[in-house]
Amino acid sequence: MTETASGSVARGGKRPRKGLKMKRIFTKPGVHPYDEIQWERRDVVMTNWRDGSVNFEQRGVEFPEFWSVNAANIVTTKYFRGAVGTPQREWSLKQLIDRVVGVYTRTGIEHGYFAGDEDAEIFDHELKHALAHQVFAFNSPVWFNVGTQSPQQVSACFILSVDDTMESILEWYKEEGVIFKGGSGSGVNLSRIRSSKELLSSGGTASGPVSFMRGADASAGTIKSGGATRRAAKMVVLDVDHPDIEEFIETKAREEDKIRALRDAGFDMDLGGKDIVSVQYQNANNSVRVSDEFMRAVEKGDKFGLRARLTGEVIEEIDAKDLFHKMAKAAWECADPGLQYDDTINDWHTTPETGRITASNPCSEYVHLDNSSCNLASINLLKFLKEDNSFNVADFVKLTELIITAMDISISFADFPTEKIGETTRAYRQLGIGYANLGALLMATGHAYDSDGGRAVAGAITSLMTGVSYRRSAELAGVVGAYDGYARNAEAHKRVMRKHAAANDNLRTVGTMDAKIHSEASRQWSECLKLGEKNGYRNAQASLLAPTGTIGLMMDCDTTGIEPDLALVKFKKLVGGGSMQIVNQTIPRALKLLGYQQEQIEAIVEYIAEHGHVVDAPGLRQEHYEVFDCAMGERAIAPMGHVRMMAATQPFLSGAISKTVNLPESATIDDIAQVYLEGWKLGLKALAVYRDNCKVGQPLSAGGTAKKEEPQEVAEPEVKVIEVNRPTRRRMPNQRPSTTTRFTVGGAKGYMTASSYPDDGLGEVFLKMSKQGSTLAGVMDAFSVAISIGLQYGVPLETYVSKFVNMRFEPAGMTDDPDIRMAASVMDYIFRRLALDYLPYEERAALGLFSAAERAAQQRGEDPAALQEAVDREALAQSAPIEEKKPKEASAAEAEQPAAIAAGRELTLESHQRFTADAPLCMTCGTKMRPAGSCYVCEGCGSTSGCS
After folding, report:
1. Secondary element (H or E) of residue 661
2. What DSSP line would sit under 160-181, residue for residue?
3. Containing domain of residue 124, as a range?
4. How many other CB atoms sit within 10 Å of the CB of residue 736?
5. pLDDT value, residue 760
6. What distances in angstroms separate CA 479 from CA 11, 242, 311, 465, one per listed residue?
7. What integer pLDDT is reported at residue 905 of this predicted model?
8. One-letter-per-residue 3-state SS of 477-497
């Protein structure tokens, strides 16, 4: 713990003030933290996902030997400054950390944060040690900008404001563009803008906020955030009592229908595709700001009034439950809108005298004043798990103090995209400390994510983090003064501190681990209230839970933010290229803690490596299954498990939580409505949902779409023998015509050979994939055999086409086929191609499958069927002479089936790929991104779709 003492360092030439006495956490006097690290040189070479060409190369970069290849690659490509190939280019992690920490230390000295030179040196060394050892990380803008010639923007999250004037709306467009260009995201509430049901002063009708969203959306789609690193991240919020709320709710759902129709017609509708720009409102997350009044009306089935923006009078009454159902229906269709619970947010607001909280950043974790910003930093929780499986509370407290001190110092030197944002941020000094690796910590300590014990640990850690942060903020207020807006909001701020402390008192512990953490949290809150009463607080906001996308990868975290583990098996990049599939390293530790012997652990780990889940793992007791539940896969955590975890931590956060509640494809509209309702009841500030496969090209569900079977004969009471006519295989002749197609899907190359009967009926398909490894090649061989045998037994090609078209998994993306510009998977491409080559136009038209020439003919108003040659429908039914079945005869391809199946055993990730099928492709490297909070992160290069 640090102390305050009289210091000799003057602030801005003023009289000497108190300064912080710093104490060491990880470092030793007289030893530089870098000297205790084993460093090594590596080569970072990044290839183009389309053609394999090199698009980034820097050799001889220097990193600690314990940093993973992926973490080193991401830091080298994302954060090292200077032109590649020049002497100015950074080549060592030491240089990067020195660049950033040097600015923090110098600014801290200049502004009187430290009691003396020794304290400044301790601060400097402790920061460097913690960053080099991946104990925590600042958000990306710090690494991008601090210590460079660029504006020293340190904030990742911004909230803007817009009024009901054209000048304000155009200024909003401009401010968003500047923020996007700087690599950050912003949010705004449009509820001040008059609705399309209200009149203008000139007598005309207002356009309404949804109309103005089009211009902002087009701007965001044009400006790549950070120059070229990712698409702009933005949030648009509308209050539930706005007269245009129904149009706002349904906006993105209607556009999603357009995307499906255009994609099925063959247009390029993927992220970054050239045709996606024709669809609107795709660059923002939409959220409805609901009030307690509205939610109570939903519960009671009452009417709810929509109010004019200028006068506040009710201009229309609607059924609250019906409107709530429309929100859930739209979210069911396209994952938007999310909900923000207005009264809960403002009940925990520390500065209400300055203004209400109306909006959030794009990922919904930063909720504070309009025209403000927040800089983030996240702690790697797994670094505090000791060998005896206890949590290192003392070091966690000290590190939190260090981080809050550094984050507050950054506001003193930071630049901001607009003067209004700069003024507000300097006056209120909003910080966003958070953490990552909670899911890994819980698993490693034998806690199920969806359990009382798991929630108790998470709640205790969050309470301790925020309690220490505000206690340190009160200490800083005694050294360098409270935030400028504190005097005006003192009573409200202290009221919120008491609410946090009361929530901590109500936290019920379950085990030894959370009890010790909670005990320290109680002590910290007690000290926080005392110091706050005396000094006030340096920061209006201290904590939140961000998605930790890129910085989570930088810290080699297994899980991001508050998320559980994604899956039990992952891919790990190897030095020199390539990757290998590994079982999460926290699993053996958890098994040992749960009492399993080494032989049992090895058997269970081997089973997980093969199957990707723990169900029926040898020797694993069923009561321990829940410890290994993940966000996806065989035992996916139930949606309410995610909501309950958010509720366990929300009372201990200044801000909110970036997290999406995942629901299975089978979830109903009522399921989503129930999640939204429970989120309100449990005291969340914001909530977003995502139903699997709800976006772009959703395949037909199993229920209600299958063809009806012929009615079966009903057996009489007595035993009756029914003869069944079994299909007979029609083998291919030894010599048959075939066509070989070379194709590329998402950068993956392959070859398809389709063989026909002499009368042109398709009877055999063989697939070969290049550059994908033996596992995928074996699986494709086995799949080819299965499809070929099915065709030869009389399964119609159109049946396969209807089942496999729109199937989504990796690799996916652009193809080199002019008839099929985008494919959701290799299977999607193959059966689209087979349909175009072998099915008549009428059947393909019913499936929405057309060639490029046919689409062009449709656009010209011509009949595409006229382009088709006459097709003999009988010839398409496999009509080669029937051969007698020889029981012991088998083709060479059939003989290879067991080997192919054995080779396919390593594809354990395939079982959960469908859960991330709707994630976008990375704009930088083309890899499928994965969820990180309510945003997405690319594990290949570290790019994110939101805050990091």
Report:
1. strand 660-663
2. ----SSHHHHHHHHHHHHHHHH
3. 1-133
4. 13
5. 67
6. 11, 45, 47, 21
7. 36
8. HHHHCCCCCHHHHHHHHHHHH
Q: Of 133, 154, 173, which one is at a domain's C-terminal end?
A: 133
Tell me, yes or no, whether 790 lies in a domain: yes
* Token pair of 70 as six digits: 């992926």
Phi, psi dihedrals of residue 878, rounded to the nearest 5°? -50, 105
pLDDT value at residue 877: 37
pLDDT tens-digit profile of 481-529? 999 999 999 999 999 999 999 999 999 999 999 999 999 999 999 999 9
C-alpha distances in Å from residue 596, one per residue of 12, 114, 454, 602: 61, 50, 21, 10
Do the Cβ atoms of 840 and 868 come closer than 8 Å? yes
DSSP 806: T
Q: What secondary structure does DSSP assign to 45-72, as a single string?
A: EEE-TTT--EEEEEEEEEEETTS-HHHH
Q: Is the pLDDT of residue 430 over 80?
A: yes
Domain boundary among 584, 600, 629: 629
Tell me the backbone φ, ψ of residue 225, rounded to 5 degrees.
-60, 130
Query: Mind spelling out the 3-state secondary structure of 373-412?
Result: EEEEEEEEHHHHECCCCCECHHHHHHHHHHHHHHHHHHHH
Query: Which residues in 536-564 are b (16+ Cβ under 10 Å) and which e?
Result: bbbbbbbbbbbbbbbbbbbbbbbbbbbbb
Spatial distance between the Cα atoms of 841 and 761, rounded to a whole number of angstroms:
16
Give the length of the chain. Answer: 948
**What's the mean pLDDT when you consider all of the chain?**
84
Distance between CA 632 and CA 936 in Å, rounded? Answer: 15
Mean pLDDT is highest, among 82-96, 685-699, 746-760, for 82-96
Residue 391 exposure: Cα atoms within 13 Å on the Cβ side: 26
The more confident residue out of 129 and 310 is 129
Could you give the residue numbers annotated as active site? 361, 363, 365
Share of the chain above pLDDT 70, in %: 82
Cβ(199)–Cβ(206) below 8 Å: yes
pLDDT at 797 exceeding the cut of 60: yes
Beta strands 935-937 and 930-932, pairing class: antiparallel
Task: Examine the domain organization and report whether 751 and 617 are in the same domain.
Answer: no
Between CA 662 and CA 691 the distance in angstroms is: 6
Number of domains present in the structure of the chain? 3
Instruction: For residue 644, tell me if it sits in a domain.
Output: no
* Within-domain flag for 259: no
Q: Is residue 783, in this structure, part of any structural domain at all?
A: yes
Peptide bond into 811 cis (omega under 30): yes
d(CA 594, CA 614): 14
